[in-house]
Give the backbone structure.
Amino acid sequence: MSRLEHSTHGHGGHDHDGQAHHDRAREGHAGHAHGPVRHDRAFAIGIAINVAFVAVEAVAGWRIDSLALLADAGHNLGDVLGLVLAWAGAFAGRLAPDDRHTWGWKRGSILAAFANALLLLVAMGSLVWAAVLRLQSPEATQPGVIMVVAAIGIVVNLGTALLFMRGRHDDLNIRGAFLHMTADAAVSAGVVVAGGLVLWQGWLWADPVASLLIAAVILLSTWQLFRDSLHLMFDGVPSSIDLDAVRAELEALPGVDAVHDLHVWASGTTETVLTAHLVMPAGHPDDAFFRAAAERMRERFGIGHVTLQASTEALMPACGGPRAPPHAAGEPVFTTTGTDA
């Protein structure tokens, strides 16, 4: 029993057939003409202006003893660290694969997104605790200063968020940075409102209440990021991909009788990988079949790295994947090594 295994992808694939490699390289280049968008300049600008704003906000909050300003300054400092993490993750994803890390360091962007979410969740826990204590014994502040500093924060945070707007839909790591900045803008708006209430009505409790609202807004925006990044860390199917639809698309390919061992996961926050075994009783397909299959996966599902294995019979029992064909578990196991093409 022989088998044919074929890998086609848009980011640095490997193939042992020279002409086939050339054809697929051209196809991969057409599908991914410029690769993932780089945001180095956005990270540099965002980090610089946020560090400056944290310093201003912390000094103002300390001088007038405003918990809302100090809390927001602490959160903004966490966001600076988050931007650094996101930048490091994006940089790691561009490092070339080597003999010891054949996938490269793309997973660094997933780890950065997870660390970003975890950092925010911990920071918000501390903020809630401090706000509850302050709510029990409110203290006088200078609402005018609070409102001015927070208004500056709205401009800074919205400006930084705009730097990451373009990549927020395609990259979980960039989405984390974008969410941080938009949440900060909402937080600063809340601080302005709290300062206005103190100035207008003398409600000292508005300051810690604003801090609690800040925490609620950020927790809501961070929880999905935390779940998505944790899901990808354990090789979960990206939320944008319907695995049943992928299976149906592969089964609809000409000559395919069944699809076994279908796996889809993210190698980083911008690249999705697919491997599958195709049972094709009529015989092994040619390169054109694999190119068309890879192009279909890329166009319909955004999967840029596709590895398909074809054989006339099932080579191994189902590995326990979702909705595996009922008869697959009874297929014999073949231990012969095949050839790559």
